[in-house]
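Example 4.3 (complexes with small molecules)
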Amino acid sequence: MSIYESLLREIRALLIVDAHEHLAPEKVRLSLKPDVCFLFSHYTVNDLISAGCRPWGITARERWKLIDFLRNTSIPLEERFKVIEPYIKYIKYGTYYRALKIALKEVYGYDEVNWSNYKEISDKMKEENKPGIYDKILVEKCRAKYVLPQWSELDFEKKYMRPVVWVNKLAEIKDFTGLKIKCREEGFDVRSLDDYLNYLDFKLDQWKKRGVVGLKTVSMPYREPPSFDKADRVFRKGLTSFPLDSSERDLLFIFIREKLIELAGKKDLVVAVHAGVWDDFRQLDPRHNIPLFQKYPETKFDLYHMGMPWVRDTAFIAKNYHNVYLNLCWSHIVSSHMTVSGLLEYFDIVPINKIIAFGGDYLVYSFEKVVGHLRIAEENIAQVLSKLVEEKRISSLNEALEVARMLFYENPVKIYGLE
Ligand SMILES: [Zn+2]
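Answer. The structure with zinc ion bound is encoded below.
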């Protein structure tokens, strides 16, 4: 058996942390009637549109129209499958599809989806969609000890779910009247920005007690926040029911977001940062966050997705800033090869306690693909570590396995304080 094969076998017995998902509580999944079109409705849907599958002339930015169509079970399955089937042959060599293909085999026992089996697979998917499906997929097949979901609800009824909350939930104020009522219900009479900051302090403590381990935000071109006085004036104007214009709303958002980033550091909550890949990815450049990394040295930042395509830039960010960690969630299925080459460079550049190997990054609709994503991640980590063993930079198989255990388990446990 080659070093790679031995290592892969050992890695496939390790406990893992699934360090980023968009999963809703299991009851949401159980309320659905999943079929093969669900499997194509996330990530692969982008490749389908890119390949030319553009019903109603949609563009990639209108992908929600195709996503909603694929998940709309009141439309006959045949009608939905007919729209995407001609394009599967164009996307089947991509890594998004590969995760689907692996999951299809491992979870449902099929090699491909085609006209002869799409109904049968769909029946099987419905049959398997029963209580315990999260444990079966995430705990039994993926060996996850902890899963870090980002979702609007916090109550997952599963102890292994440790939520990360979308920062805009607190930073983006759309309705001041609703905000006042909500805060009052929780014992806060909000009459100024200071009052709201006190409420945020309370809220983070409360979330932490309920198992929340981090806040999630997204890379954006850096803008210096306004002074407290200026933000307070805008906040008070909002409270008196004067409609705020978009620049005022924006100014307040920038101020509150940064306050939350600072507060997260004080309360030992990680700030997870989406970087790269999506849509007009120029806006999502990981380098936009450098001023935040410098300004809040006590806040831990978990930089996502290797900042693809700025993989090298993220290596230098994590090298130069003690408070930045690198999370390979989503990366393995965006590009397996880019992840492997990037990770080899990470080993040259970044201390290894700063790297998190895996996060599935899926939604309930097709969450069985977490299995496929994990299998690719296991291969990628085994490839990188076996190469380092061959180069004699790692001295033994055992040492390589210790490193794998850090990447898949110990690092995320320490970074997010899971134990
Ligand atoms: Zn995500």
